């Protein structure tokens, strides 16, 4: 599989050198294959050096993304999904508590303090009752959050949960985790433009599922799953590009 990916990526590089533009699918293919090739370099160390293969399980435990993507097993994907679900539940609890705390000490942002507090309390009540949060709710309440929920103000535990939530490694210092999350958010914003340009319907089911996972959104299987994921992505892109909502707040809102 890796050899086939390299062959395809070689043709894509040739296409770029000829001045042609890559589609979203082609760009992701090239990026993934390049990352896989880079991952092979440290893997060769375990193959060449005698007895180093015994330390490979330890290395994979510390760096779960060390193996190329073509070697990922179903069990690993299922474990990642379970971790992501747990992180989403923890992030949801954190956000709900944060909103309740903010309602007690709300700042003036164009609403009266009483109206703002009542609206936040009503919002969190509906969330806890299982009611779906609409784009209109998020846009209307976004100014009330100010800088309370930016990455710079999140504690270590919440940074780790957010990393798990979007499927990236949570190893490193607080500053490094914030850097990785910001890089992830920048990639998502660029991807939003690509998806809007090519259309959500141009994505295959697997591509749509990967896009939802990267944004911390549900990616179900079975009947009606494509329509569900398509609607989620359209709502995300509307908030991201249509209303210019901060990416960090948009990502956190997916946990509600």
UniProtKB/TrEMBL annotation:
Keywords noted in UniProt: Membrane, Mitochondrion, Mitochondrion inner membrane, Transmembrane, Transmembrane helix
Pfam families from the UniProt entry: LETM1_RBD
GO cellular component terms, semicolon-separated: mitochondrial inner membrane
GO terms classed as biological process: intracellular monoatomic cation homeostasis
Main location: mitochondrion
Transmembrane regions: 37-60
Location(s), subcellular: Mitochondrion inner membrane
Letm1 RBD domain mapped to chain residues: 83-256
Membrane topology: Single-pass membrane protein
GO molecular function, one term: ribosome binding
Name by which UniProt lists this protein: Letm1 RBD domain-containing protein
């Amino acid at each position: 599989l890796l050899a086939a990916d390299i062959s395809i990526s070689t043709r894509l590089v040739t296409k770029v050198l000829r001045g042609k533009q890559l589609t979203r699918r082609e760009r992701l293919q090239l990026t993934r294959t390049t990352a896989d090739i880079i991952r092979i370099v440290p893997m060769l160390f375990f193959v060449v050096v005698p007895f180093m293969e015994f330390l490979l399980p330890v290395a994979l435990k510390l760096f779960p993304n060390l193996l190329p993507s073509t070697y990922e097993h179903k069990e690993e994907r299922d474990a990642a999904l379970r971790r992501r679900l747990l992180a989403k539940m923890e992030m949801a609890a954190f956000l709900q508590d944060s909103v309740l705390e903010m309602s007690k000490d709300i700042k003036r942002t164009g609403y009266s303090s009483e109206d703002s507090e009542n609206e936040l309390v009503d919002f969190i009540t509906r969330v806890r009752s299982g009611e779906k949060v609409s784009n209109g709710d998020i846009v209307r309440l976004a100014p009330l959050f100010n800088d309370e929920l930016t990455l710079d103000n999140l504690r270590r535990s919440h940074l780790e949960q957010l990393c798990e939530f979007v499927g990236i490694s949570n190893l490193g210092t607080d500053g490094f985790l914030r850097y990785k999350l910001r890089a992830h958010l920048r990639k998502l914003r660029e991807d939003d433009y690509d998806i809007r340009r090519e259309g959500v319907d141009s994505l295959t089911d697997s591509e749509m599922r990967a896009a939802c996972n990267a944004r911390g959104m549900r990616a179900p299987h079975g009947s009606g799953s494509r329509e569900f994921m398509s609607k989620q992505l359209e709502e995300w892109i509307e908030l991201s590009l249509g209303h210019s909502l901060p990416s960090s707040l948009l990502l956190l809102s997916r946990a509600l």
